[in-house]
C-alpha cells in the first residue's frame, strides 16, 4: 500500500468525485480509493491509498493548486470511481463543469410540474454532548440533501459546525457565517438550507448577513415545500397551505422592505407597517382555511363512518419515509399508488381491500411516511389524516432493513407514534427490502430471534404469505370471542364472519347455525341479538 496527498483550489465535493486513473504506457490500470478530503471552499486536501501492485510506483509529487495528471476531474461521466468514498469532515463543495450549464438546463420536471432547480447549500450544527440526536450530523445532512433533491433543488455544497449551543442571533458562529458567504459567491448559491428549525430572528439575521437575494430556509420549510408540491387531494392541499401560513406568520420579513428602498429610506418604518398589514391578511386567510378544512373533514368523517359499518378490520402501514409502504400496498392489493425512490412519495392515505388465499380479508391503509426531526407543526397538521392510523385495529411498522440507519429510523418512527398517541394499538414489525441486504439469511435469523418480526420483500413478493398470516394472527388478538345463533336467513352474515373473523366451530341446529368465533369488536356488536339467542337456547359452551 502506498499513499500520497495533494491540495488544490478547485471547489469539489465528495458527491462529485469521479477520478480517473490515466493509464501510462507500461502501467496496468489499478483501482484505488480516495480516502480523505479536507478543506473549505477554496482549498482542499485529498489523500489516496493506492494498492501497490504490479510494481507500481506512485511517487509523483503534486504541486499546490495543480491537479495531478493521473487524476482527471473533468471526466465526471467515467464510472471508474463511482464508489469512491471520501470523508468530508467539515465542508463539501461540488465541482461545476464550466460553461456547461445554461438556465434552460435548470428547469426540471417534478411531479408533473416544471420547477427551476435552485442551487442550494446545506448547513448543519452538531450539538456537543447532545445525546438525544438519533442521527449524526453527516447522516442528517445526507438526508437533508435527499429532501432538497425531492424538492427539486440542486445541492452544490454543505458544511457543519460543532457547537455547545446554537448562537441565538445567527444559529451558527460568525466565522461560519463568513465561510458560507464566500461559498455563496463562489458557487452562485440561491438558497441556504439549515438542518434545524431556525427562529424568525435567526432567519432574518442570516438573510441580512448573506445579503443579496439569497433565500435562507430550514428543514421544516423544505418539508413543507415538498408537501406542497405533492399534495394531491383537496384536504392535503388545505392542510399544507395552513401549515405553511402558520409557519410563515412569525417569519414575515423581507417581502416589504422594498418600500423603504423605493422611498430612499425617507419613510422609515413603512415596510414595518406593511408587515403588520400583511400579518393581519395572513391571519384572516388562516381563519378561512381552518373553516374550509373543518368542512372537508366532516365529509371525510361521514365517509369513514360508512366504512366502519362494513366490519372489515383496518390495518395501517406506518414507517419511515421510503421504507416501502406503498410498494407493499401495491403488491398485496394491485393498487396503483405512486411508489418511488424519493422521500414523501405518499401524502394522502389510500385504503384497499386485501384478499388472502384462505378467503379472509382486511383493509390496508397506506399513510404518509415519518422522518427524524419531523416538525411538530407538521405532525399537528397531519393529525387529521393520521386519524386513519388511530382508528386501525393493527399498525404494521414497515422498516427498510437494508438501510444503514435502520435502527435510528425505527426509533424515530416510534417517537412519532408515541407523539401521536397510538402506541397502545397492537403492532407488527416487518423488515422490508430483505432482497437488498448483504446476508439475507443472517437478517432472517435475527428477525426470528427477535420474535415478533416478519421479513419480507415488497418488491419481489417474498414473505408476503407469512406476512398476511401474521396480520391475521395479530388481528385475532384484537378480536372478541362470540357465540351466536344465526337464523338460516342470515347467510350473508355467516359468510362475512368467515371473511373477517376466525371461526372455530359451526354447528347446524334446527333453529339456525351456531357459530363460535373470534370477530372484530364492531362486528360483535352487530351480532348482539343473535348472541342472546344462544343463551336462550342454552347452547352456550365453554370456550
Ligand atoms: N429492493 C427493494 N426495493 C424496494 C422494496 N420495497 C420498496 N422498494 C423501493 O423503495 C422505494 C420506496 O418505496 P415506496 O413504496 O415509495 O416507499 P414508501 O414507504 O411508500 O415511501 P413514502 O411514501 O415516501 O413514505 C421505491 O423505489 C421502491 O421500489 C423491496 O422490498 N426491495
Ligand atoms: Mg408511499
UniProtKB/TrEMBL annotation:
PANTHER family: GTP-BINDING PROTEIN 6-RELATED, GTP-BINDING PROTEIN HFLX. It holds the Pfam family GTP-bdg_M. HAMAP family: GTPase_HflX. It comes from Eutrema salsugineum. InterPro entries: G_HFLX_dom, GTP-bd, GTP-bd_M, GTPase_HflX, GTPase_HflX_N, GTPase_HflX_N_sf, HflX_C, P-loop_NTPase. GO terms for cellular component: cytoplasm. Residues 313-479 form the Hflx-type G domain. The keyword Amino-acid biosynthesis does not apply. This is Hflx-type G domain-containing protein. GO terms for molecular function: GTP binding; metal ion binding; mRNA binding; ribosome binding.
Amino acid at each position: 500500500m502506498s499513499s500520497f496527498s495533494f491540495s488544490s483550489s478547485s471547489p469539489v465535493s465528495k458527491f462529485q468525485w469521479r477520478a480517473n486513473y490515466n493509464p501510462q504506457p507500461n502501467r496496468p490500470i489499478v483501482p484505488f480509493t480516495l480516502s480523505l478530503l479536507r478543506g473549505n471552499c477554496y482549498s482542499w486536501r485529498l489523500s489516496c491509498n493506492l494498492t501497490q501492485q504490479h510494481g507500481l510506483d506512485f511517487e509523483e509529487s503534486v504541486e499546490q493548486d495543480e491537479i495531478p495528471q493521473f487524476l482527471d476531474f473533468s471526466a465526471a461521466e467515467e464510472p471508474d470511481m463511482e464508489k469512491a468514498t471520501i470523508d468530508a469532515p467539515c465542508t463539501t463543495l461540488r465541482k461545476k463543469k464550466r460553461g456547461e450549464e445554461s438556465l434552460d438546463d435548470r428547469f426540471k420536471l417534478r411531479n408533473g410540474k416544471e420547477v427551476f432547480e435552485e442551487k442550494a447549500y446545506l448547513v448543519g450544527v452538531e450539538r456537543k454532548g447532545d445525546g438525544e440526536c438519533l442521527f449524526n450530523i453527516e447522516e442528517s445532512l445526507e438526508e437533508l440533501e435527499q429532501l432538497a433533491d425531492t424538492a427539486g433543488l440542486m445541492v452544490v455544497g454543505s458544511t457543519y459546525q460543532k457547537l455547545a449551543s446554537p448562537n441565538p442571533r445567527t444559529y451558527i458562529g460568525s466565522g461560519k457565517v463568513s465561510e458560507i458567504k464566500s461559498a455563496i459567491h463562489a458557487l452562485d448559491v440561491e438558497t441556504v438550507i439549515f438542518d434545524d428549525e431556525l427562529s424568525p430572528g435567526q432567519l432574518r439575521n442570516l438573510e441580512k448577513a448573506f445579503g443579496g437575494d439569497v433565500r435562507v430556509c430550514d428543514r421544516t420549510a423544505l418539508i413543507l415545500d415538498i408537501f406542497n408540491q405533492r399534495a394531491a387531494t383537496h384536504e392535503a392541499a388545505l392542510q399544507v397551505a395552513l401549515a405553511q401560513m402558520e409557519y410563515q406568520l412569525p417569519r414575515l420579513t423581507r417581502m416589504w422592505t422594498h418600500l423603504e428602498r423605493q422611498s430612499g429610506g425617507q419613510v422609515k418604518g413603512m415596510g414595518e407597517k406593511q408587515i403588520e398589514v400583511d400579518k393581519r391578511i395572513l391571519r384572516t386567510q388562516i381563519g378561512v382555511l381552518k373553516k374550509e378544512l373543518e368542512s372537508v373533514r366532516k365529509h371525510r368523517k361521514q365517509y369513514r363512518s360508512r366504512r366502519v359499518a362494513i366490519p372489515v378490520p383496518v390495518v395501517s402501514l406506518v414507517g419511515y419515509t421510503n421504507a416501502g409502504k406503498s410498494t407493499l400496498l401495491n403488491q398485496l392489493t394491485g393498487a396503483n399508488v405512486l411508489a418511488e425512490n424519493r422521500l414523501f412519495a405518499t401524502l394522502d392515505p389510500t385504503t384497499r381491500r386485501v384478499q388472502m388465499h384462505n378467503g379472509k380479508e382486511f383493509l390496508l391503509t397506506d399513510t404518509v411516511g415519518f422522518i427524524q426531526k419531523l416538525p411538530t407543526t407538521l405532525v399537528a397538521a397531519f393529525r387529521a389524516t393520521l386519524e386513519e392510523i388511530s382508528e386501525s385495529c393493527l399498525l404494521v411498522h414497515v422498516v427498510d432493513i437494508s438501510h444503514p440507519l435502520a435502527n435510528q429510523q425505527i426509533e424515530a418512527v416510534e417517537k412519532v407514534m408515541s407523539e401521536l398517541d397510538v402506541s397502545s394499538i397492537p403492532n407488527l414489525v416487518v423488515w422490508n427490502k430483505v432482497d437488498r441486504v448483504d446476508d439475507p439469511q443472517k437478517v432472517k435469523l435475527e428477525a426470528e430471534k427477535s420474535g415478533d418480526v416478519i421479513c419480507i420483500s415488497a418488491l419481489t413478493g417474498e414473505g408476503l404469505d407469512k406476512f398476511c398470516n401474521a396480520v391475521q394472527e395479530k388481528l385475532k388478538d384484537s378480536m372478541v370471542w362470540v357465540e351466536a345463533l344465526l337464523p338460516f336467513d342470515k347467510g350473508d352474515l355467516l359468510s362475512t364472519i368467515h371473511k373477517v373473523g376466525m371461526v372455530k366451530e359451526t354447528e347446524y341446529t334446527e333453529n339456525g347455525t351456531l357459530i363460535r368465533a373470534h370477530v372484530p369488536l364492531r362486528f360483535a356488536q352487530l351480532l348482539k341479538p343473535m348472541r342472546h339467542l344462544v343463551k336462550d337456547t342454552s347452547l352456550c359452551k365453554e370456550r
